[in-house]
Amino acid sequence: MSTHSRLSVNVNAVAMLRNRRSLPWPNVTNMAAIALQAGAKGITVHPRPDERHIRRSDVAELAEMISTRFPAKELCLEGYPDASFLELVETTKPTQVLFVPDDPAQTTSDHGWDFGKDSELLKDVIAAAKSWGVRTSLFVDPDASEPEKAATCGADRIEIYTGPYGACPAGSPASLKELERLLATANAAQAAGLGVNAGHDLTVDNLPPLITQAPFIGEVSIGHGFVADALIHGFAESVRRFRRALREIG
Asked: Quick check: is 200 catalytic?
C-alpha cells in the first residue's frame, strides 16, 4: 500500500450547511484543514455564480490556508469557464482547474462536455489556465471515445463522471456494467497521454473495485459521500476510511 494520497475532499456541502444561517460556522476553511491534516491530498470547491455554497471569499481563504499551512497540498477549483470564473482562476492560481459544462442552475455536475460543440471554447480556456501555471482537467462522461477529444483540446487530465456507477448498489450487476465503462474510459485516457481523475457519488464501498482495476487513477474528488460519511465518523476519520478504500493505508 502507498502512503501517497489521491483523495481531494470537496467541501461544498460544508459551505451549504453554513449558509443556512447567518453564522460563521461550520467554518469551511477549518474543516478543510482537518481533512488535509488527516491525510487528504487536497481540497476541491465549486464556486457557483450565485454563491449558494462556496463563496469567492472562501476560495481566497482556502488558497491562503493551503499555501501557508499545507504547501505540499492542492487546491482544485471546479466550474464553468465564464469570465468571472476565469478571473477567479487567474487570481487564485489553484493547483488544478476542473472545467465542467454546468448550467448555473444545476444542482450538481451531472454530465461531461459536448466536445463537438465546445471544443474551441475549451481550447481557449485551457490555454489561458496553462499560461497561469494551472493544471487543467475536463469533466467527461464514461465513454472511451471522450478522452482523445479532451487531449485534442490540450487538457492535462480528465475527470470521469462516476455518477451512474455510484447510483448502483455496490457489487450489483448494474454496478459491474458501469465499472466496465469507467475502466474503458480510464484506459483510453492513459492511451491518450492524459492523467485520470474520477468523481461523483464515490463511497468507501464502491471505490475499492474501481481503484483495484485502475490503480493509475491520480485523484478522486469526493464531496457528498464524504460529508455523509463524516456525519457518522467525523471528518478526520472519514479521510482515513476513504484512504483505506483507496488502498493507500491499512
From this structure: yes
